[in-house]
């Protein structure tokens, strides 16, 4: 927040700097090998000879070389997206090899601390603060399995998640659209997974809506556990830990027209923002007096997903504030056999949906006349977000997107 850059955006910058660091490291090794070769030592044999003849009295040279090879594996190969997305824990804990590398580097080049001490100090402080906040007691009020393979967690945190300060249990101290890291000790004491806070900051409890992503995943284990506990009437006994909140909130006060575009369970950060804006206008806080239109466009394959937030959607439809707030639900599954006319949800929620996909181009083009006073906020499949971003640039309106690919 100091630099006005979101946490997930900083992750992208972190990757770029990491690649640059590895490239410079490789360049350093190549230059060193060329210097060794110029002094008559054969290549590539000298790379694998331990101890090296070159500066044989300096044991940190071969030690540093081995540490750098390990770094290439742990920070390079194991950081590739195919590994990170399928084996996150392998990637995460292997990433800590960097700490060993920095210790060896400071030993090898004793002047290196000038360049790394600042970053390492900030990292230590950050980890300390996160560990302290992780110790907050979390009181699970309810855990339930909803239609569409969704788990809903409702909870309060000691001191709002600020740490074990013996304060009152309250909702997380967050702003609309932020996320937390969730740990379920009964599944794994080491796994922490990011999930958006789906409730509004003004709600009486913090909620997460988590989609079951299939067998072998953390979300499937959570779904099965909650299902079992719910059947036994023990859902409130689920033990969880939370770390957060994270993410840079959007400043909605400078916009008059807001279009939220969601795909599937990507609606969670948008619902948090949509609901908070609705509550603020309903209660007449005055902070959003210039707001003229807020629309949620939500497309999903399963009708059951829409019912996860039926309370908010039904309230918006029933309230006179509906003239400012509106929503359109699109059911994309089996669109060839569904009628084009709107239909009611079979789950008894009285939510009206339209078969097919939304006309995103038409909706964003309608905002063109409002320029930078209009915002498109999207979260969902990468293809959908890219389309929203490109159309926003074409029509000259602001764009903000959320991603879970950390």
UniProtKB/TrEMBL annotation:
The keyword Chaperone does not apply. Keywords: Membrane, Oxidoreductase, Transmembrane, Transmembrane helix. SUPFAM superfamilies: Ferredoxin reductase-like, C-terminal NADP-linked domain, Riboflavin synthase domain-like. One of its GO terms (molecular function) is oxidoreductase activity. It is a multi-pass membrane protein. The keyword Coiled coil does not apply. InterPro entries: FAD-bd_8, FAD-bd_FR_type, Fe3_Rdtase_TM_dom, Fe_red_NAD-bd_6, FNR_nucleotide-bd, RBOH/FRE, Riboflavin_synthase-like_b-brl. Gene3D superfamilies: Nucleotide-binding domain of ferredoxin-NADP reductase (FNR) module, Translation factors. It holds the Pfam family Ferric_reduct. It is found in: Membrane. The chain crosses the membrane at residues 16-36, 59-78. Residues 127-252 form the FAD-binding FR-type domain. GO terms for cellular component: plasma membrane. PANTHER family: FERRIC REDUCTION OXIDASE 6-RELATED, NADPH OXIDASE. This is FAD-binding FR-type domain-containing protein.
